[in-house]
Amino acid sequence: MSASSVKVTKDISAFVLRNIQRMADERVLIGFPSTGAARKDGPVGNAYLGFIHEHGAPKANIPARPFLVPGVRASLPRALKALKVYGAKSMTDPSQLEKGLEAAGAIARDSAKKTITSQGTAGDPATPFAPLSPVTLAARKRAKVKGTRALIRTGSLLNSITYVVKKGK
Prior knowledge:
The structure is a single chain. This protein is mainly alpha-helical. The protein has one domain (12-167). It is 49% helix and 7% strand. It contains six helices and two strands, in the order H-E-H-H-H-H-H-E. It has helices spanning 13-25, 46-55, 68-90, 95-117, 134-142, 156-160; strands spanning 26-31, 162-167. Helix 3 packs antiparallel against helix 4. It is elongated, with a radius of gyration of 22 Å.
């Protein structure tokens, strides 16, 4: 096929390039935004508690119970599939990009939450959460807290995991 046999009826290359640039400039962040991360039961916020539980605090005898990174990592195949579908649609309809980022964010958020409710096995079946210590279980019993699952006491930490779509760098 020679160059003379191609006829351009409508050039949308600038439109497509703008959409590609928008895709590069927007991102979805999963975790604990600064708003809504406060807790009613103490001065330490959910973002701080999430960090402690994700990485552990050996001096306080708190083992690492990673939930955010493994949960997001486990969600990647589904989240990327959603981004691919919406990304293709956004080439002609820019509003689809936002929908794709929202879908990917919800998938990752839900996977991180599932990692907590499954006690670690949703994010990495080979590394379930360390069980609560007898000291923690006794403290919960004294406080009349019935739950015996790690990272779930009031539901505040679990319910504060979310995502935000951020525009720009």
